[in-house]
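Margin note: ligand = beta-D-galactopyranose.
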Amino acid sequence: MSTSLSSHILSFAVTMMLFAGVEFAPQFAQGLENGVGRTPALGWNTWNQFGCNVSAALILEQARLLVSTGLAEKGYKYVNIDDCWQNHTRDSHGKLQADAKRFPDGISALSKELDAMGLLLGIYSDVGTKTCAGYPGSSGSYEIDAATFAEWGISYLKFDTCSLTAAERKDPRPAYGEMSTALNSTGRPILYSMCNWGQHKSYQWAGGMANSWRTTEDIWPQWQRVVELLEANKDLAQYARPGAFNDMDMIEVGVNGHVFNQKLLPRTKLTSREAESHFSLWALMSSPLILGLDLSQAPQWALDIVGNDEVIAMNQDAAGHQGNLVAEVKHGSILGGKCVSLGNCTHTQVWRKQLAGVQSVGVVLFNRGDDWTENSPKWQVETVQIPFSKLGFAADVSVHVRDVLEHKDLGVMTGSVALPVPPHGVRTLVLKAVGGAAYA
Ligand code: GAL
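Resulting structure:
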């Protein structure tokens, strides 16, 4: 495991160096009309908590828990096996095969069991010759692999970007496109989730071939990382639409340490407040919500956060808009991640997502804090205020304000809303214009 992890990291680093400086011109992206992924995908994935320790038993255990916790009913349908499910060699017909010890009955049997539970099985492969953990990739075998996945009853493919040929490193679009065509020609609806870490500005072209595409390198359960990934996605709203979403990577709510962190970095996790902020922000940004926690050890607070129907509904809004940053206030000086001001260091933001129907928006009032721990003495609860005109409402409109974390109506307001927000915390709201006035 440690060898495959270090080779994984090495290949990641080498690829990143090779991609540095490559510029891709914006292209007109057409939606991938394969009928799936019209709203961001909801599901669960093995990687963040279990790394290479994948097996049919694990998948079945977590699938059952998705059902018994009620999360499946709330929409978390995809159960995705990430890297390391494969045998190291293809069979005599060139087909990928599962590791027989971990998946003794094969993948088809597993997908049938999930199907009987009302769930959908997802799988992982790689556009290059090897996956990031060193298993056979799909390069040169796109058609046969797509056909195999369809035959196995797969409904979601995460397609990674390790071990590319020189030509693919220069331009991975033809290879990713070939898999898109191969999946579509199977006739089975398979959600195509590209995972090329945002390289080659894939957000500009992936919408024509995939249902979602990763826009960054990996997430891990650490506050600083969550904020960095949010930042990296802040200007990408124009690329999201039904059937095609920017993927900010998986949900770290309730995840204890990361597969990388266990070896290389201290074990980290988000506090419950940070986890709540992460989930609201990912929901507002219309990112797929793919859970990473071990459901057999999930604390109730984590289940409550990811099971919040109103936040899920904001993510799943039919219009498919992504949120964007509409206001930001910074005070004080941060040096090396620490507040070095005599006064307080504060950094608040307001994020807004337009919802379907008339005059309705999701809003996250966010107190970022700007330090790595929650205990900085220089932090405080901040009042975050936003005029309705900055949220797209006409100046004189009355607005109904609902707190979707507390499940509480806060009343009808005019002019603006102002609420106290704790450090690393959010207030997540749905605002609706009273009386049907149009967006300004
Ligand atoms: C990375 C990917 C991760 C995980 C891992 C598996 O490239 O970003 O999400 O899939 O590979 O090796």
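The longest strand covers residues 346-354.
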